[in-house]
Each structure stands twice: as C-alpha cells, then as structure tokens.
Amino acid sequence: MDFLTKRNIHIKNEKLLKTAFTHSSFSNENHCENYERLEFLGDAVLELITSDYFYKETSYQEGDMSKIRASFVCEKALATYAKEIGLVEYIRVGHGQLKNINDTIIADVFEAVLGAIYLDQGFEKAKKYIDDIIIPYIKQDTKFLSDYKSILQEMVQTDKKSLEYKLIRETGPAHDKKFEMEVRIDDMVYGVGIGKSKKEAEQNAAYDAITKSAGRII
C-alpha cells in the first residue's frame, strides 16, 4: 500500500491490516472481523500523540489544548487526511454500502489503520506516521471546525423560521458512541450529521444543511 510504503511502514501482520479496512457491512457478508476494535485503539493512540504534540510544542492552557486538538481529530479532519494519502481505495464494505462510503466510515478506518500500525510496529512508528500526516495541517492552522450551528441560526433568524436538532440514532458501545442528529427548519429535515458526540453531530447536521442550501435559506 503506497501510503504506508512511502512512509517506510511495512506491516508484518497482513490480516491485521485487512481488518483495519473492513467495515461491519463487509464482515457481516463475509464472516470476518471488522475494524471496530482497532478503531477504538487507534482513537486512543491518536489522542495521546496529538496531546503530546500540543503539550510539548505550545504553551496553551488545558482548555485551549483540548479545543484546538479536537479540531484536528474530528471526523472531517480525519476523513481529509485519509483522502489525501489515498487510504480510501482500500476500504472494504458490503454490497449495500458501496455507494455510501461516507466520511464517518473513512474517519473510522483512518483510526483503525493507526491502531494496526501501533500494534504491529510500535508507538514510535505510529507517532512518526501521525506527525508526518497531521502536523503540517496544525502548522498551517487549517480550519476543520467552524460554528456551523451559529451560521445556520443566523440564516434561519433572517427568515423568521424555527430551527431544532433531533437525535435520530445512537449506536456503538458505551466507550465508542456514535450519534446521528437531524436539523429541522419549520419541522422539515434539512440536514443530517453523525459525530462522536451530540455536539459534533449537530455541527455536522448544520453544515449539511448549509451545504445543501448553497447559501440560500432554505
């Protein structure tokens, strides 16, 4: 896999790497393990690596470090990294999911691959991998998170319409929840978003509504 080879990473356990790319829809059809356990591990490794960077390289206070770090490990950011390095083409999904490899799946796989690198190659190699991919975005101060809820609220208030967010679905184990929210304007659904917290899902739903409206409300 080019994105690993170019970073001098050679996974010895090929089955582990295949699992990192395997969505539950594929594993259900083919009776094999999916990436969810590796994603859980990769999420923790990513948090440690990025926290280590912000602690050593900045003088931010705890609250600021948490806020800034969150913007570089959010779903949108992880999906962006994955697309840039060419990771997406290796994702394995079931037939019913082929046309819906969304940013949630892509971000999950990014974390799962990190988990596989950590298990197979150790922490230092995992850290070098993340430093190579993410640190340039941090140094460029790339904006992944914006307050889309406030932007949407402004648009809605202009037209004197009502806006509300509603939880549609909550999935996953207690340690790795996924929330799906929809945003309704005058009781009509205009956007849907998924996130690891209700707040992130609401922001993604607001972003979805803004994007679909192409700047028009709505």
Layout of helices and strands, plus pairs?
Layout (H helix, E strand, L loop, with lengths): L1 H4 L8 H7 L3 H7 L5 H22 L4 H11 L2 H11 L17 H19 L1 H17 L8 H11 L4 E9 L6 E8 L2 E8 L2 H16 L5
Antiparallel strand pairs: 1-2, 2-3
Helix pairs in contact: 2-7, 4-7, 4-8, 6-7, 7-8, 9-10
CATH topology of the largest domain: Ribonuclease iii, N-terminal Endonuclease Domain, Chain A
The domain tally reads 2
Order of strands side by side in the largest beta sheet?
1-2-3
What Rg do the Cα atoms give? 18 Å
The number of helical segments is 10
Helix fraction bin: 55-70%
SSE string, helix = H, strand = E? HHHHHHHHHEEEH
Gross morphology is: globular
Write up what this structure looks like.
This protein is mainly α and about 220 residues long. It is built from ten helices and three strands. A three-stranded antiparallel β-sheet has the order 1-2-3. Strand 2 and strand 3 form a beta hairpin. It starts with a helix and ends in a 5-residue tail after the last helix.
Structure characteristics:
mainly alpha; Ribonuclease iii, N-terminal Endonuclease Domain, Chain A; Double Stranded RNA Binding Domain; 2 domains; 3-stranded antiparallel beta sheet; 11% strand; globular
Write a compact overview of the structure shown.
This protein has helices at 2-5, 14-20, 24-30, 36-57, 62-72, 75-85, 103-121, 123-139, 148-158, 198-213; strands at 163-171, 178-185, 188-195. With 218 residues, it is mainly alpha-helical.
